[in-house]
Amino acid sequence: MGKHKAIKTFHISTFGCQMNLADSSTLAASLTARGYRRVADAGDADLIVFNTCSVREKAEERVFGRLGEISRFKKNKPHVRVAVVGCMAQRLGEKLIEKAPQVDYVLGTDRVFELPDVVGGNEGVSRVMTAFGHENMDAIEAEKETPYAGFVTISRGCDNYCTYCIVPYVRGKERVHAADHIVGCVRKMADEGVVEVTLLGQNVNSYRDGGVDFPDLLRRVVDKTDIPRLRYMTSHPKDLSPKLIDIMAKECRIMPHVHLPLQSGSDRVLEKMGRGYTIEHYRQIIRELRRRLDYVSITTDLMVGFPTETDDDYEQTLQAVGEIQFDAAFMFRYSVRPGTVAEAYPDDVPERVKIQRLRRLIELQKSIGFERNQREVGRVCYSLVEGTSRRSEDIMRARTEGNKTVLVRADGIETGAVVPLRITAADAFTLHGERVESQ
Ligand code: SAH
Ligand code: SF4
Ligand code: F3S
């Protein structure tokens, strides 16, 4: 096995958010179009790609852990090439190669799609590319994730600069894909048999292409494509408009789920985070969503231990969570990110306190999730079947309109089908259902 063995196969590991998953699908399609073959096991790949996340320190540590394993593996297979792309590549650039010399290519968030050129050894391309302003938004074609579901990125980057967040630095300023381009991507997926598309952006509600705002975009996608199920994320509370709630109420093809990160229940902390809304404004949105949309499912992100968070601030978060009753929540401990505004604040909540606060919050949300899920029992949910469950081949895993996981006996139910399931039982994180006839 010589050093010059050709690169024929590739493997991509994706970390972080759905925007990275979407980018990985696009990247995989372009590598495949160049004749490289995707393999399921990194051990079989000549090119190993890590599409990375910088949002918390832990996310970066996990990638360094994996790179450590690769370094041993590369000793036996010297022709293997390793590429780190995405947010961490953007943040660290050359430093990444200094810290992990086994890495061959580092491509930042605007340069990810140049990987086929770099690997192909095209003249003039370098191993480390992180300059912004190089992407061609029109050339980025969304690709389906699975034969039945896909992500379509509507905007890249973020202009919000929440004080704790690295995303605006690693993803750059907000750029939108043209509405027609987005409609075209969704239509292509629908024509290929995809039944559910999720539109993605760090703040979908700030979308604007000329006169087309986000609700207008949803309207266009619904009217101009045959996609049966449409979702979107992430919503920002400061920009979620009544017009959006209106179109969701009118269009049953837009799934009744809103992911609306709250972060904290304390106005003082929200202000220091630079979130641009108060808890009362947030409550109003929730009231309106629940008034207008039957069985809307509302999920959120919460953070504990932000600089200066007192016991009292934290209690306000618990109170807000208890009152609002989220269907589910992602909950995090604050992690200092280099270069952010909050880096200059004292990281003054001891780690031990952060851990305790997080644990209690998770417990509370678990009992609320359980209660919320009981409300689904007896209902019929049209659910998209995503595959077999982790535990058994005889149980299928499906997703309800409200984005909840439901388990059902396999009995000839096929992956990719949308089936009516009567919910028979529920626990904190999952529903259980049985197949019924269409109604
Ligand atoms: N654009 C989305 C969130 C993107 S990041 C929004 O505005 O809500 C996803 C989540 O990670 C955030 O909602 C936040 O809860 C968490 N997060 C971001 N930066 C973090 C940090 N420095 N430490 C801990 N959690 C963080
Ligand atoms: Fe980060 Fe705030 Fe932008 Fe979300 S809106 S990506 S939390 S800066
Ligand atoms: Fe992480 Fe980048 Fe997404 S930092 S959360 S992968 S935009």
Summarize the structure in short.
The protein is of the alpha/beta class and about 450 residues long. It is built from 13 helices and 21 strands.
Structure description:
This protein is of the alpha/beta class and 439 residues long. It is 34% helix and 23% strand. A six-stranded parallel β-sheet has the order 2-1-3-4-5-6, sandwiched between helices. Strands 17-18-19-21-20 form a five-stranded mixed beta barrel. The chain has a three-stranded parallel β-sheet with strand order 7-10-13, with helices on both faces. Iron/sulfur cluster is lined by residues 158, 160-162, 165, 167-168, 202-203, 236.
Give start-end ranges of low-pLDDT stretches. Answer: none
Numbering strands along the chain, what is their spatial order in the largest sheet?
Answer: 2-1-3-4-5-6
Would you give the CATH topology of the largest domain?
Rossmann fold
Give the overall pLDDT as a whole number. Answer: 95
CATH top-level class of the largest domain: Alpha Beta
- Small molecules bound in the structure, each named once: S-adenosyl-L-homocysteine, iron/sulfur cluster, FE3-S4 cluster
What gap, in angstroms, lies between the N and C termini?
Answer: 61 Å
- Strand percentage: 15-25%
Shape: globular
Radius of gyration: 22 Å
Figure out the total of helices: 13
Largest sheet: 6 strands, parallel
Shape-level CATH architecture of the largest domain:
3-Layer(aba) Sandwich
Number of domains: 4
Q: Total strand count, please?
A: 21
- What would you give as the CATH superfamily of the largest domain? Methylthiotransferase, N-terminal domain
Helical residues, percent: 25-40%
Structural class based on helices, strands and sheet pairing: alpha/beta
